[in-house]
Structure prediction request, 961 residues.
Amino acid sequence: MTPLQIPVEKWAGKVTEVKLGGNGRKDITIGGENTLPFLHFEGTFPHQPALAIEIQDMEPDWPADLLLSWGDAVKDPGQWARKAAEYGADIVALRLRSAHPEVENSGAEKAKRTVASVLEAVDLPLIVLGPEVAEKDNEVLLAVSEIGRGQRLALGNCTDKNYRAIAASCLANEHVAIAKAPTDVNLSKQLNMLLHEAGLPMSSVLTDPTTGALGYGLEYTYSVVERLRLSCLSGDEMTSTPIICTVGEESWKQKESRSSQDIPESWGAQERRAIIWESITSAILATAGADIVVLRHPRSVELIKEMNGKWLSMT
Amino acid sequence: MKEENINCRVEFHPQGKSAAVPPGTTILDAAIKAGIAIDAPCGGQGRCGRCLVRVEKGTVTHNDSSYLNSEQIQQGWALSCEAIVASDLAIFVPDSRERIGLGDKITSRKAAAPPHLDWPLTSPVSRLPLTLSPPDLQDNAADLDRLRAAMAAGYQMENFSISLPLLRRLSRNLRKEKWQLTLSLDTRSREGEPRLIDIRSGHKEQPLLGVALDIGTTSVAASLVDLNSGRLISQASSLNKQRACGEDVISRIIYSERSGGIKDLNRLVIQTINDLLGELTALPVSPGGKGKIKATDINYMVVAGNTTMTHLLLSLPATHIRQEPYVPTATHFPMVSAGALGIKINPEASIYCFPAIAAYVGGDITAGTLSSRLFQNDELSLFLDIGTNGEIVLGNSDWMVSCACSAGPAFEGAGVNCGMPAIRGAIEDVIINSRTLEPTVKVIDDVLPQGICGSGMIAVLAEMLSTGVIDKSGNIIHEDKRNSLIRTGEHGKEYVICRAADSAGGKDIAINEADIDNIIRTKAAIYAGVMVLLKQVGISVTDIERVLIGGAFGQHINVESAIKIGLLPDLPWERFHFLGNTSLSGAYNALLSPEAQEMAEKLTQQITYVELIADSSFMSEFTAASFLPHTDPDNFPSLKAKNRRA
Prediction:
């Protein structure tokens, strides 16, 4: 009997390395892999997939179980960030939800204050996400970019309609832009091309392919992430940016995570079910090639950390 | 004072002015110094080719500009904005009209040739003079029997069919001019025997005419032809009056589903045709001649139209063309008489409608393919008909595949704020000065512009991209707030192509982001269609040996701009050929030759139709093409090379 020969693919490209943090703050580098996820026999993974924990600038409208897991910390972004660090976050992802016109319509001033307090509270690298309303995103992210100058924050999101101001600001203040396109490999690549034309190097860009949770379009996201990665490994620099997936946000939005109404009893208790929903979504996207997953529940963070550790130590 | 010595002296003719400039100066700058205005609408970027001059003496250093080939450089031509003074020079400056001519030739813009007959000429209708012996008591056979006997004796033609209305006129016509008659016989009748379509008394010579007709969704074009000689007597075109009921075929079909809808649409197209016929017959028979053309001398008509247009002409229900799985009532249509449709020519005249290939690849494409002669050529050819929709035929003498892409009518002027068809007053070319962003426009018939047609849209998009007015996604990004040409208007961000003071309507002609989006979607649908078709047959873009471009729009399009925006595949310019209105010239061929008509019927069997909606890769190709020029720059290597140089 001849031993099984595992075919080894020789790829022309690799994922661009993107560094967050630094300048007195802890830093983290993501990307750099030159093969598909977890294929140890084929290539190298200089950096582990990173785990970001989502916090918000106001008390969130999350399900009670999820809120409970954070206790009073949700009332203060700085305190929340410290707790996230304790729970093992590699990165803190701050969502400026209060800036949404239909929430508080808060502006640049509040954004600056909140970000300053989080930067003060923890020394982890920071992702700052706007309310995803192009005009408001520009307003708060440009302000944040100023006060975070040199801290190499990741600022999101920019789309093909509002990328220019954010790109210019990232360039001026040494930040990383998160480029979000609606679940399409071509649209993600086009956005990177636009950012590139605007002068932003690919080492200052993260790609958010738009995440669909388990049962809600996960297979589309999987396919887009996989296609982006295959294209990158084939040598296309414009698809070589590391991929960030906002898993927590998407999976906690779904009714399976929010309530027990109309859900078969055999699917288990709500909190446990929701954690599984978030973890499964996250694990699947990690196998597709996600470099950063943004999670909400501390237990999911724990599970994914454990999984990553096992998968990465397999040889 | 040393510098004085190394200066070069540049003389300009015929102005007779000169300037001393250091080597390394461009000819354009030398001209400015000499006080000569050389028109450089692109701002001296080597893009427009309007600043051509000829070097008569001395040497210049050329940039490897795409405007000049080695032969032209050999002849001394130089782009004054790029050519560098390297010695004393004598420069000839052609006047601007001549320069525009040159520039046009270099960008391979070519007007369509008049229709060309590729098949043996046999008129579909024969005119036969006949003299009958009058009846008497010994021979009192019926008039029709007498006519048959005379036809058998004179032309060995006893069997022919005759309609009741003609039969009603027979006895009177026989007796009007002493039993002398002139008969018109339709020899292409499908019943196997010729059909009598006209009986006239006497032996007067009268023209025997036919009409070739292209019924487009947007415009209708007609050629009046002498059936005996094949001579083109006149041509006319007008907008399809059905436009009042919707701009594209889908909206027409939706209109047809109302009560009385088909009737309305049919009436409108018949009106359009009759108005055109009125225009065609308003002219004298021959230039300078006196005899006016009579509509009743038109004895045959060939119609090429897309499947929906043909259905509406024949009042056939078109509903199912729109609904999956897209089934037309017929692809091969019966011969009908003009009288039955209300077309004002000889009411007995046959009307032949080109057969369709599928619901969205209609008779216009069958006619276009016939006229392109793609099926007679070993070379792999891509035939593109860019009209209200984009249809594509790919193949050669061995095989052919086709598809339709729902490109939409943007290039015909619909769905674009200042859009208009390519008629008098339409901006057909635009050059933008990269420093001032000032546009220079070329207008059809050199009148004040009213709007912009498809070729102008392609040009303006390419120019806006080159000058940084828009990004590759089509967003207007130029942020110079002092520049009044870029502004936020009632339709959002826009670029002014022509200021109110310079336009026919006294209003600014501008292109906005929604327009740009529309044009990008249109060009992406066409390019994606090409890519899917190529993929289906396993062929790469570079294997295409000839690109044949048809459609009324195909006469003015600038290949360079079309490649720059990713509408046409990136191939050497000499592979592109402009065929003009191929639908009309296909109809002209079928009018004059039964072999061509037969070939048209065969083509529908030989062309394999590919349904893009059923192809899973189309959407992905479409999104990839919805970028300028394309998401994958490897598809446009010539543009990549150019960017590197810049």
